[in-house]
């Protein structure tokens, strides 16, 4: 009876987000039989995240020789290049974080248990950690993490605005932005996990705000370390709740009361220590692979530099080459919405904006500011709680000033526009071997869909 009451207590918004997660999972599962150039479900950067799993959990080492040979078998030249490349201590390199593999490990182990059982029953199932069974379980887990992140983000926004505004904002950021792509087409990337970790962090921050202390600091450290494990720059968000406590600590010092400042310093030290402990598996990996647990692997590879004094701030937002706003316009009103959010909750609006600026500066300073083969500004997905918060406040104000039908009409246009880009990117731009152009982002997405449908109809007719 208690279980039924809990199910009934789940809000309509919760159920819709769970349904969206189920839809994304279904889309992924239905596309598994489709032919793939490399015959793998995991590809691109996802290979480097994934190889930790069979290497550590099945082989008990950090030697990626077998893993690289398997996943890149379609390109012998690449395999030869990878196997000939060595770190300063003679190991095969892997500069990608271990955090995704840690979060994926329960799904990988469950797949291994099932594969072992099927093999024991006489079925010809490989238990080497590479097969579609393993990859399907891991990527399904990645989608579930992303869905859980959306649910947390929605609840975070719902605490500030109406349920309707929070739900519409969450849906638009997910479906009119680039998250939907990484929830369906490329769940092997780390971005769904970033959304989960940042959503959990902002949700926890909201619940623990006004209750500073050792327990709160422990939670912030735990989640800050988790974010850093997934993508090191994501861990910067851990500083935001402590920055919120600086003004009262300063006022206390000026008034002769040192207790707020001492409490802040204590909590920063606790959170930092816990975050470092949580992040320590990554440091162990760096130490084993590169010989230095305190140095990022990106600093060993030529051409992967950060140009801190000449960031491409404008290009990252407005370039046709995967600019955040040009590829997904929904993010612009989301950031504009931080201004009305500031009138309601200064702390989250101001520090959320600061968190976005920090990510913007880091991404802009990297040599690969266009973020590789990406469906838009993928590295900004860690800012999903910030985007949803801003858009939810803007939507609520717009609905009051105009009407909800106006909000739905504008949102619908953005959804259609993003769907056209999704199709164009997935079936053309991702393999085009050229920089995207303004034509691709405007007229091209319409003409490509028409051409694509025409070719499809011809195939069906023959």
Tell me about this structure.
With 462 residues, the protein is mostly helical. The chain has one domain (2-461). The chain has helices spanning 2-9, 12-31, 46-50, 52-59, 65-71, 76-84, 99-120, 132-158, 163-175, 179-184, 191-208, 214-230, 239-243, 246-254, 259-290, 313-318, 324-327, 331-336, 338-344, 346-365, 384-401, 404-427, 438-441, 443-461. The model is unreliable at 1-8 (pLDDT under 50).
The succession of helices and strands, N to C, reads: HHHHHHHHHHHHHHHHHHHHHHHH
Can you give the mean pLDDT?
A: 93
Low-confidence stretches: 1-8
Helical proportion?
A: 55-70%
Which secondary-structure class do the elements indicate? mainly alpha
Largest sheet: none
Work out the count of structural domains: 1
Q: What's the β-strand tally?
A: 0
Output the number of helix runs: 24
Distance between the termini: 57 Å
Radius of gyration using CA atoms only: 23 Å
Beta content: under 5%
Please state the overall shape, judged from the principal axes of the Cα atoms: globular
